Amino acid sequence: MTLLRSFAANAAFYIWGAAINLAFVPALALPRMATVHGQTYWARGVLWLMRATAGIRFEIRGAENLPDGPVLIACKHQSAWDTLIWHVIARDPAMVMKAELLAIPIYGWYCRKTKMIAIDREAGPSALRKMVAAAREAAGAGRPVIIFPQGTRVAPGASAPYLPGTAALYGALSAPCVPVALNSGKFWPRNGWTRRPGTIVLEYLPPIAPGLRRREFMAALEERIETASANLAAEGASRPGTA
């Protein structure tokens, strides 16, 4: 049954993605928010399809930890789910992403139009400067800035270093940083096509106030995210969802 549902989920994901990406091409000629709304519509469709085909639901915890005003959100990254969910639960998110993704036809066009923050990790210090400048512009416009501190998807239980880009943004924005833990990799793995039924939990953790030194900030960020994500991974693999 899991294999059949996984096949249906993957087929639905790619068919829906192709259809919606083509349908919203004309939005590229309209004001930026038209494309932002298109990304939200796409993401809502994916979430509905994953629930209908694979039995993957989601639950959001700790929303009370989101402060008013500019915010940097540092999110654990285990799955493709972690990137699409922000189009649904955040207003006009500015996500830090790999620059090479901009080369993907149509998808890359949308990311440029919506002013995602692309970073060329091979460019060294100049890449950090450009990332910081783009993040300041986004925060100034009232957009939440979202970064994946490890820079790549990491399977539950695996380890990968926390990269300096998050500390650079934390220092430059002078805004609270909200760590985010999740367990998406249990149900939508980073590799392979199997989709497992259950409830993905995304949990906002208490914010880290601005002003910490770089090393102190990074230690607190990693400890909070890794501890909470491990706790979520230990929860039941399949239970009723709320969304």
Number of strands: 7
Average pLDDT? 93
Q: How much helix is in the residues?
A: 40-55%
Number of helices: 8
Question: CATH homologous superfamily name?
Answer: Glycerol-3-phosphate (1)-acyltransferase
Mind telling me the CATH class?
Alpha Beta
Question: What is the N-to-C order of secondary-structure elements (H for helix, E for strand)?
Answer: HHEEHHEHEHEHEEH
CATH architecture: 3-Layer(aba) Sandwich
Instruction: Please give the order of strands in the largest beta sheet.
Output: 1-7-6-2-5-3-4
Q: Cα-atom Rg, whole angstroms?
A: 18 Å
Beta-strand content: 5-15%
* Form type: globular
Biggest sheet layout? 7 strands, mixed
Low-pLDDT residue spans: 237-242
Structural class: alpha/beta
Q: How is this structure best summarized?
A:
By secondary structure, the protein is of the alpha/beta class. It has eight helices and seven strands; from the N terminus they run ααββααβαβαβαββα.
Observed structural traits:
single chain; 243 residues; alpha/beta; Glycerol-3-phosphate (1)-acyltransferase; 8 helices; 43% helix; globular; disordered C terminus
Report on the structure:
The protein is built from 8 helices and 7 strands. By secondary structure, it is α/β, with parallel strands linked by helices. The protein has a single domain, classed as Glycerol-3-phosphate (1)-acyltransferase, CATH 3.40.1130. Helix 1 runs antiparallel to helix 2 and helix 6 crosses helix 7. Helix 5 links the parallel strand 3 and strand 4. The C terminus is likely disordered. It starts with a helix and ends in a 10-residue tail after the last helix. It has a 7-stranded mixed sheet with strand order 1-7-6-2-5-3-4.
